[in-house]
Specification:
Order of helices and strands: HHHHHHHHHHHHHH
Shape: globular
Distance between the termini: 158 Å
């Protein structure tokens, strides 16, 4: 019986100890659960961090998107507009005509250039001062190897002293030489003007003839001088092939000829005869004002799109503008007494000899 009571006590003690340990065994699964929960929470947080990192990077990239400008049509320099589809070529761009330009295409291009120049120089006129055919023929002879301006500054004194062919024919050569000295080659020019004055007096009654074949017989008078006189004193068409005319028609590829007579024939065949005198004025004026021998102002040229030689000179419009001469550059012209149309267009008369 005692053993039974003792065994009962130990069993009760065992049950008590089992009952006390039970909560400890239950805590283990709870700890496992809490650990798993932490891992799960950590696992959930990790993608959140990645997402937040992506958002942060997106936020950093966002300003770049905002800074990117909206697409706008590209602004093309004027000189390059010919290469842009749908944009008309700028006047400063001059595509070269094809090497195999047909005769018809050449005639059309040449006449278009003349029309363009007529709009730019509607007041074009002979730039030698004269009041009658005699003064014009003398002034034209004196203009060789010098400027019209220098001739215009010199002839007032000459014609004041020798107003008629008879007066100049009887002049003392040394006195005439002194007057003509500023024009250069004054001895040869004195011989020519006295000689032609004698011829006019003896052969034509003191009058300048109105025919080419008669004019070229006068001392110092060639075809160029004759056409200047015929076109401007008698209203008879003629082409004046001076140095400016020769240079420009070759630059424009109107002809490859170098002889003045052949140039006259080649260019004359491109235009109606009625256009010849005005054509000469337009070309010569353009050569003196814009299309210079050494530094042509290509960037200020009204016929640049039609010119095969575009680019030989200054193409920048602002720089080219500084190369313009006479009234196009704001400077005086070559005549002391220019026509009223020239003055109305803004032209300025030249200063007399010794002024400035």
């Amino acid at each position: 019986m005692k053993k039974t009571a003792a065994s009962k006590k130990s069993a009760a003690a065992d049950r008590a100890s089992t009952t006390e340990e039970a909560p400890a065994t239950e805590k283990a699964p709870a700890a496992k659960k809490s650990a798993a929960a932490k891992k799960a929470a950590t696992a959930k947080k990790a993608p959140a961090k990645k997402a937040s990192a992506k958002k942060a990077s997106a936020k950093k990239a966002a300003p770049l998107k905002r800074q990117a400008p909206a697409k706008k049509p590209a602004v093309v320099p004027k000189k390059a507009t010919a290469a842009v589809k749908g944009v008309a070529p700028a006047k400063t761009v001059a595509p070269k005509p094809p090497r195999g330009e047909s005769r018809t295409a050449l005639v059309r291009r040449a006449r278009r250039i003349n029309r363009e120049l007529a709009e730019v120089y509607p007041y074009a006129h002979p730039e030698l001062d004269f009041e009658n055919p005699f003064q014009l023929v003398v002034a034209t002879v004196l203009s060789a190897q010098t400027t019209d301006l220098r001739v215009n500054q010199t002839t007032p004194a000459l014609f004041a002293k020798y107003p008629t062919p008879e007066d100049l024919a009887a002049a003392v050569p040394e006195e005439v030489e002194e007057i003509l000295r500023p024009t250069g080659f004054f001895r040869a020019k004195t011989k020519s003007v006295i000689g032609l004055s004698k011829a006019l007096t003896e052969d034509f009654g003191g009058e300048v003839p109105g025919r080419l074949e008669d004019l070229v017989k006068l001392p110092g008078v060639g075809r160029k001088t004759a056409f200047v006189v015929l076109g401007n004193a008698f209203g008879r068409p003629g082409i004046t092939v001076d140095t400016h005319f020769q240079r420009l028609v070759r630059r424009w590829r109107w002809t490859e000829e170098t002889d003045p007579d052949k140039i006259e024939a080649a260019v004359g065949a491109l235009f109606p005869k009625s256009d010849w005198t005005d054509l000469s004025h337009h070309v010569i004026w353009h050569g003196r004002r814009i299309c210079h021998a050494r530094k042509p102002a290509c960037g200020a040229c009204p016929v640049a799109p039609l010119c095969p030689a575009y680019g030989e000179g200054e193409t920048d419009p602002e720089k080219a503008k500084k190369l313009l001469k006479y009234e196009k550059g704001g400077f005086p012209g070559q005549r002391l007494k220019p026509p009223q149309a020239y003055l109305d267009a803004g032209g300025k008369p030249a200063p007399p000899l010794g002024a400035g």
